[in-house]
Structure formats: structure tokens, C-alpha cells
Design a protein that fits this description.
387 residues; 50% helix; Butyryl-CoA Dehydrogenase, subunit A, domain 3; 3 domains; Butyryl-Coa Dehydrogenase, subunit A, domain 1; binds flavin-adenine dinucleotide; four-stranded mixed beta sheet; four-stranded antiparallel beta sheet; alpha+beta
Length: 387
Amino acid sequence: MDFGYTEEQELFRRSMRHWVDNEIPKEYANRLEQQEYEFPHELWDKFTEAGFHAIGIDEKYGGQGGDIISQMILCRELARSLAGLTWVWGISSFSGAKSVGLYGSEQQKLELLPRLARGEIKFAIAYTEPAGGTDLLGAMTTTAVRAGDGWVINGQKIWSTAAHVADYLLLLARTAPVTAKKSAGTTLFLVPGKQDGVTTRQIPKIGMRSVGSCEVWLDDAWVPDELVLGEPGNGFKQSLGTLNNERIMLAALCVGIIDGVLEDALDYLAAREVFGKRLEQLQVLQHYIADMKMMQSQAELMTFNAAWRQSEGLECGLESNMAKVVSSENAGKCSDLALQMFGGMGYAYETNPQRYWRDARLYRIGPIANEMARNSIAEALGMPRSF
Ligand SMILES: Cc1cc2nc3c(=O)[nH]c(=O)nc-3n(C[C@H](O)[C@H](O)[C@H](O)COP(=O)(O)OP(=O)(O)OC[C@H]3O[C@@H](n4cnc5c(N)ncnc54)[C@H](O)[C@@H]3O)c2cc1C
């Protein structure tokens, strides 16, 4: 079994690393991240120029093609510098374009995918509601009611990242009363983000601050039938089709965070002196570095394994959940160790580890909380459902 990159993948990885170091180094990411509430459009434009929005989109619809492995490499290399700002690329790409590619009608694909590939439109995901994200269906009160040749949507969403700048919200709403099977009667809509009846408010937060995450209110927002994604009544089931992809990408993002903090820690230990010695000569700090390296390898192998299974068309739900949990927890531990090794300067906004540390904290909570991912892992082993 070989989880190494092919020659072509390795070339792509190297070109990505070169691009990141030249175009979006860590100082650049630090500066962007400090502009709270202001979406980093210039970063989006750099991705557009580099063609990254087209990766993963079928060539037939104006994309560059590329499977989950290319997306995983791109995601990891971006996150090595950008950490959570990687979502500026990720939401439209591995959540938005993936959903349209999987469930869109031919007309939706022809209309939306080329524009996504050219970086002309942005997507946001609006699933979570204020009453709960883990028990999404139990908490969901947003409704869409038939009106002429469309639907009127009313309700509220929360934590919809980049909703304030999105051209389309991929939104889940209830279109039929709740029955014993809670997932039935839900529908996915592509709601134009800048239309009447849609308002947003950014929620101040501790990490990935310039990519705003929003509350979204829908007050009689009308959406035509052409903007229903997939089959009405089957929305939740369809949303499950993108979950493995999202978990693998999140795991890759966390591996990128580990890459970023490990190299920073090595540089810092080599440069700073205490007691007439460089920090790198202290055994305890060497052990921290060794721990980080082992956590990097563990997360990397589990992420590769899940991505490889997905690319081979093998069942990968268990592997994606495990990669997500391990990578997010290792990214948190590694960024915390890096911050510790920077001493007091680790606590300063002008150094890097704190940004990774704040961003990594989220990934144990979302897109799926690690407690819920563990529930699924236990269920995959035949244990009874615990909720
Ligand atoms: C910065 C940020 C960005 C986000 N971006 C988006 C986005 O773009 N689009 C979107 O739709 N959502 C987004 N989310 C929402 C995210 O997916 C949810 O926060 C997440 O799913 C958890 O839901 P919750 O916050 O309602 O917590 P809750 O569901 O209320 O959970 C609270 C706690 O209870 C635990 N818990 C709940 N049920 C169980 C159970 N059965 N077993 C064990 N433990 C359980 C959870 O693990 C958690 O620890 C974002 C969230 C944040 C913070």
C-alpha cells in the first residue's frame, strides 16, 4: 500500500507551496485576519487569478477537473499559511460547487459551475439554525411554502460563513410537516444572497475573523423553482452526499495547520537563546517537536487514507470521521505547543501560532462536533445509536 503522491501530484504540491510562499505568506494572512468584519476580497481575487476556484469542477462546465486528492493538496498547502482563511476558497469550492455538481440540474450546472470556476460567484452554506446544529433536523424551523412557480422562505439560520458576501446561500428548509422520519420533507435551495427578504449580521468570533460568519434572516424570501437544488423533499439526504468530502477537506486543512505551526516552531527554536543555549538544544522542547511530528504523520496518514478511499469509490464514512476527529484534535494540540514554545511572544497578535490556535479550536466543534463524529464511529462498529 502506498500513500505517497504520484509525480504529477508532487509537482502540483510543490507549485502550490511556491505560490503560497510568494503570494500569501503568513504575514499576509496575519494582516488579512486582523481586518475583522471585512471579507478578504483580494484573497478571493488571487485565487481567481491562480485558477483555484476551477479545481474540482468538471472540465465540461469550465472547470479544471481534478479529484479529491488534488483538492486535498490544495487545501493543505493553503492552510499551511492561511489556516482558517482557507475557507475563503473552501466554501464555494468543496461545499458549493460539489453540491451543484452532484445534485444540480443540467441547466443549473451550465449556469452556475462556469461562473464558480471563474470566481464570479460566491456561495455560503446555511444549514445550522439557532436552536441547534448537531440535531439539525430536530432544531429546524425554517420553512419554504409553495407560491406560484416558486417558494416563499421564512426562518433563521446561524453561523453561515461568508453569507454577507454570498451570491447564493445553499439553504436547507422544511417543505413538508415533520413526520416520524425527520429527514423527509426537507429541500435544498439556492437562495440569492442579495435579494429582498434576506438579511445578515456577522457574529464577532475568536478565529477566522475576516471570513465573517453570520446570522441570516429570511422574511418572505421568494425563490423560483429553478433554484431548488435536486429533488424537493430530499434535501437532507442529499446534503449527506457532500459530508465525507467536507470532512476530508477539513482534515486536510488541519494537517496544513500542523505543517504551518511545526515549521514556525522549528525556526523559532533555532533562533532564540536562553541560558546561553539555543532553545532547540533543550530536550523538553525537542520532545514537543517530536510530538508535533508524530501528530502530523498520524493526521496525514488518516487523511490520505480517507481521501484515497473516496477517490477509489470505496466506502469512506468511518475513515472520514476518524480523520476529521484526529486531525482537528492534533491541530489544536500542535498549535498550542507552538504557542507555548514562543513564550510570551506566542501570546502576541503579531506572531503566527496564536492565529492557528484560535482557528484550530473551531474544528473540534464544526462542521460536525467531534462528539457527534465519535457517535458515528461507534455506530459503524455496530454499537447502538446513543441519541
Ligand atoms: C465559526 C463557525 C462557522 C460555521 N460555519 C457554518 C456554515 O458555514 N454553515 C452552517 O450551516 N453551519 C456553520 N457552523 C455551525 C456548526 O456546524 C455548528 O456550530 C456545529 O454543527 C455544532 O452545532 P451547535 O453549535 O448548534 O452546537 P450544539 O448542537 O448545540 O451542541 C452543543 C454541544 O453538545 C454536544 N452534543 C450535541 N448532541 C450530541 C450528541 N448526540 N452526542 C454527544 N454530544 C452531543 C456537541 O458535540 C457540542 O459539544 C459554523 C459554526 C461556527 C462556530
